[in-house]
Design goal:
Blueprint: E1 9-18, E2 25-35, E3 40-44, H1 51-59, E4 66-71, E5 74-75, E6 83-86, H2 98-109, H3 113-126, H4 142-155, E7 160-164, H5 172-189, E8 192-196, H6 200-206, E9 209-213, E10 220-225, H7 240-261, H8 263-269, H9 282-285
Length: 286
Amino acid sequence: MSTEARGCITIRNAAVVFDAEGGGIEAVRGVSMDVEPGQFVSLIGPSGCGKSTLLNMVAGFVHPSDGKVLVDGEPIRGPGSDRGVVFQQYSLFPWLSVRKNVEFGLKMRGVSAADREPAARTLLGLAGLLAFENHYPDQLSGGMKQRVGIVRALATNPQVLLMDEPFGALDSQTRVVMQEILTNMWQQFRISVLFITHDIEEAIFLSDKIYVMTARPGRIKAEITVPLARPRTAEMTSSLPFMDMVHRLKALIREESLAAMGTELREGGLTGFSMPVGPEGVSNVL
């Protein structure tokens, strides 16, 4: 396949059934989706809908029970250096400095010992972390640790970057800053990104395209193109097109979240108690 096509993710009619006591659990069913080379694509949906399962199929950690999962036209047989993965948990080696953590990714790529340090320092400079190259992970903030994790994933020169709730453990202010840092880094590298998030505003701000998933078994409910120009700026989040997308996606997700929570909630759980509790409190009801 030509260089221009590198980083193309193709999923066709993919299904995953996990073995479980008492029968199989169908995680995803009949999912078809695409990430074009250099495109930033997000997956959103209710908890348990199979978002991480899909990402793990592309990573090579989970094999589809049916259907096809391809990168650049080739079936995925397992994990590979052409796919970098960033999880919510900081997967840094605590005994290595920031620079050595990044150098580890370069070592895995086969970069010579003499070339690792300057390459790592260049990458850290792009992420605004060069001043912390000799610090250790426990000396860094959560946002800085995740930046190091992203840089280390990029150091392997992947064609695809897979990100599973990478900012989920951060406070809201740090999360917003990290979104801007990530979109700026993506502008420089322009590799394909498949991004999992529960945060609708985050998905809109970062993405070229968003797939909305149904409640389990997860299927694709909607494919939405984000009509925002690049580069993205914080001011865009208060624009009318941005807010319109927020309302549209919230409505889609709410339907599926209610479906995921079961009939009890749909039949009255949102209307409060149907009987007076009284001054004795809940114990009077129980």
